[in-house]
Automatic annotation (TrEMBL):
It comes from the Bacteria. Transmembrane segments: none annotated. The lineage of its organism: Bacteria, Bacillati, Bacillota, Bacilli, Bacillales. Gene3D superfamilies: Glycogen Phosphorylase B (3.40.50.2000). It comes from Paenibacillus selenitireducens. CDD domains: GT4_PimA-like. PANTHER family: GLYCOSYLTRANSFERASE. This is Glycosyl transferase family 1. It holds the Pfam family Glyco_trans_1_4.
Amino acid sequence: MKILVVCSDFPYPADHGGRVDTWGRIKVLAELGWTIHLVVCGKQMPTPSDMQVVYRYVEDIKLCERRSKLVDLLYMVPMQVQSRNELRYVNIDEDYDYVLLEGDYVYPILKNPLIKHANAILRVHNDEAVYFKALARSTPNRIHKLYYHMESSKFSILQKKMLKKVDKYLFISNKEFVNFQTLHPTTKSLFLPPPVTKETFLKSSFESKHVVFIGSLFMPNNREAIQWYLEHIHPSMLKEPEYKFIVAGNSRKQSLSWLDGYDMTNVIVHDTPESLDDIYQQGYLFVNPMQNGAGVKLKTIEAIQNGLPVISTSIGCEGTGLVDNEHIMVADSPEEFYLRIKLLFDHPPRARTLLESSQRFIRTHYDHKEVLNRYINSLHPSYHMKQVL
């Protein structure tokens, strides 16, 4: 079986949520014996070393340039989509059993005359209309807020167009899958959890008092989450001996001036670290205090795999299937959020039990390979994929 995977960003290195999901799926498809070709229309060109890593799993890579212009704002399609219009003209010189679109951004590939729409599958990373509306709530910048509202409205229109071209959907969020399936019961849609990226899950020693947040520092919803924690939780936590708040993520060389004005005592910021392993290893617990967002917050799943129990807002664990007080601790008010951290700090066995329960849940329910295998077989019952790795 041969598949064309179309991405809006080069999938490696897997240093943020979207890449983690896409890169994990590429490796799973390779393990299942697929021949994979990759088309990428992104802003940053990959390095030769990154290309070499991806070539271990894919047979062919085509790169096209993402071209952003102010005039793109005048189009009825979202700017994130219009800027990838080069996908319409990519030379697709082979036939594929399926074409996997990694998100709405790569919609222009469906206007490529060499693509067979009947074989298109859309991976839904977010309900983009909801996601951009959430970004508008998160940013204090009025111009950005207007842009996000415009994109949200345009994505609402685009999603209706997509329904005429695509009837196969793979949702990363169980909540968004259920909502979509209720509205569109005839589509071949499925909840496909994000891939588990570690063969062996790690476990914290629970010796430090490090509270960890890892997420893209250029995203307004992550910035808002960090600011909320610094304003409402961090001052109370400073009473805890040896406590530190560790923040890490890719800033894309943007200023961190949005942290100005907060008490940064015992706060350590790792801007675009080469590796997150030591940060996870030295952590006690992970917080995801997001106030706005959509889809599954992969940072929550990644933290559990890397050995940290999670305390999150309702938004931060939305769509994961994780249950409050069983796999994760959920708190939306500052007082409750602080008390949950204090509970796990004061009772390491409780923190250890919570982590073990969440890791069991992910092992059981996040079997990306098995779910994807069953789904493809249901679409193409005459062909049974053979696992080769």
